[in-house]
Amino acid sequence: MDPSLSLYDQLGGAEGVRALVEAFYPRVQQNAVLAPLFPEDIEPVMEKQYMFLSQFFGGPALFSEAFGHPMMRARHMKFTITDGHADEWLHCMAHALRDVGIQEPLASFVLDRLSGPARHFVNSY
């Protein structure tokens, strides 16, 4: 890890974040817990995730420029999200990070950073 670089840059910038999203969503679509939450046409979701993660990791504010303030919890309230969903989401992301070659300690740091939002979206117990 290079603390002088943003996570966005450490992940490989636009290409790296795009690769991560492209590795992540096939896992989500094959996950029995997560797949029902997502539409069959996953491309628009992937694009929004790419835009959000770019911004979240310190890159360009693509999501905010296109859609306004992320307000991610509010955007996810229409879905029932449990701790189990958050666990599965993080599990898929851990595998996607590995799939695109993100090494430790960066992979764990990214997962830790994403665990806050993943847990924040939980709205059902």
String of helices and strands: HHHHHHH
Structural class: mainly alpha
State the fourth-level CATH superfamily.
Globins
> What is the averaged pLDDT score?
91
How many runs of DSSP E, i.e. beta strands? 0
Instruction: Please give the CATH architecture.
Output: Orthogonal Bundle
CATH topology: Globin-like
Largest sheet report:
none
Shape: globular
Helix content: 55-70%
Number of domains: 1
Query: Kindly, what is the distance between the CA atoms of the first and last residues, rounded to a whole number of angstroms?
Result: 36 Å
Q: How would you characterize this protein structure?
A:
By secondary structure, this protein is an all-alpha fold. Helices cover 62% and strands 0% of the residues. The chain has helices at residues 7-10, 13-29, 43-56, 62-67, 72-76, 83-99, 106-120. Helix 2 packs across helix 3, helix 2 (13-29) packs across helix 6 (83-99) and helix 6 (83-99) runs antiparallel to helix 7 (106-120). The protein starts with 6 loop residues before the first helix and ends in a 5-residue tail after the last helix. Keywords: Heme, Iron, Metal-binding, Transport. GO terms for molecular function: heme binding; metal ion binding; oxygen binding; oxygen carrier activity. Pfam families: Bac_globin (PF01152). This is Globin, protozoan/cyanobacterial family.
